[in-house]
Amino acid sequence: MSSNNKISLGTFIGIGMAMIATVRSVPTLAAASWQMFFYLIFAVIFFALPVSIMSGEFSSMLQDAGGPQLWVRTGLGSKWGFTTAWLLWVQIFPGMVMVASTLGPLLGNTIGNQVLGQNHWFTLACIIVIYWIITILNLKFDMAKFAGNFGVWFGVYIPFAVMIIMGIAALAKTGIDVNSVLGSFSSGKLIPSVDTLKYVAAISFIFTGIETLGVYVPRMKKSNDFVKGVIFALVAMVILNLLNAFIVADVVPKGSTELTNITQPIILFCKILGWPLWIANVFSLLAAVGVFLQLSGWVTGPSQSMIQVAREGLVPSKWGFFKHNDIGVARNVILTQTTCITLFALMYALPDINSVFLMLTNTTTLLYCVLYFLIAIAFIRLRYTQPNAKRPYRVGKSGNVAAWIWTILFIFGIFAIGIVTVATAGITNGIAMVVITVVMTIIPLIINSHKNDQWLKDARAYENK
């Protein structure tokens, strides 16, 4: 690779921050009150750092396209590689509904109608109608490139900046509000409690997607700068998230947090500072555009893994998942996933928006836990099956002690997150989440057991047309 294509440490840090930065997680982090500090530190040590470091070694060792699917396939075989690709795809079914659920409150606040924004039927309608519009646009245009250029500004940078500026001004004016979610401080409030354990998954998975940073290792000027860049990006994101969550928790009255409504604190900031409410309306509109563009970027991204496995003959050829248009979009894959997302969205027929939001978040979390467990096992297994493979970036200079330490930390984090998520969800929600996760994990294993040579022949015949 030419030196012109190499990226510096500073550029890498910027990429990392843009990849994991989101204001959608701020209300959930704020809802944990003073315990947000513990949960975020836990998320970094037992989740974000281990998976980042593992992905760095994976990506330097296996530089072909494929990401987690390639890593697991190399370490555990094609069956589990296919399962990984499948899980990367199906997690967007509940995940995109969770993200899209912020559109209802944002659009309601854009027109100054907060009651409409918190109406579950309006939220349901927004998710289904807007996601289908996004789907149709993605079938016709290269929306991913457009979304990548503008979505991060509307969905991340501008909202973060507005929140911080207004929040600090409000905090300076009022100080700590004892009647807020934050409330008065005592050292005992820093220790996790049963009331806030339900937020562990959502807070930990603020960093979901950080494993994809590993793909940049081959392009870095110095591969050893990878860990420095990851740590810097994580520290910066922890500070940004804590600062925002802290100032938000200080203005939202205790017991009134709206997890899907990121405009709620902006409205409260306006009232405290005596600023016009049109600021909140404009904020909502910009954030809604950001969510729209970010959703658009996700429509085709995860589906690429399914297109790839379809080309490899791992899914029934009659599904037509290998068929794509001139911009590389597979119509059958996109329409299938949008239909499934619509079905998951029907959960918003239930009136308790906060509970539905958490259930969707937690279901996505459990699917990711299975995926991350496979990555962890593949990582440590490759140390023994391919000990002499070239690793430009390696965890630990020699031996496997460092690799085992990070693997154990990661697996502990995965199981802790999964167990707490199910245990705090309630019996009905917990059973539903586990059933969905088990079914979604078993399906690719069943498909693999019925694999037919004709699937690959059909896929190759299509590519050679």
Automatic annotation (TrEMBL):
Q: Which UniProt keywords apply?
A: Cell membrane, Membrane, Transmembrane, Transmembrane helix, Transport
Recorded topology in the membrane? Multi-pass membrane protein
The principal localisation class reads membrane
Q: Which InterPro entries match?
A: AA/rel_permease1, APC_superfamily
In terms of superkingdom, the source organism counts as Bacteria
Molecular function via GO: transmembrane transporter activity
The record lists the membrane-crossing segments as: 7-26, 32-53, 86-108, 120-139, 151-176, 196-217, 229-252, 272-293, 329-350, 356-380, 401-421, 427-447
Quick check: keyword Hydrolase in the entry?
no
One GO location term (cellular component):
plasma membrane
Compartments, as annotated in UniProt: Cell membrane
**What is this protein called in UniProt?**
Amino acid permease
Give the source lineage, highest ranks first: Bacteria, Bacillati, Bacillota, Bacilli, Lactobacillales
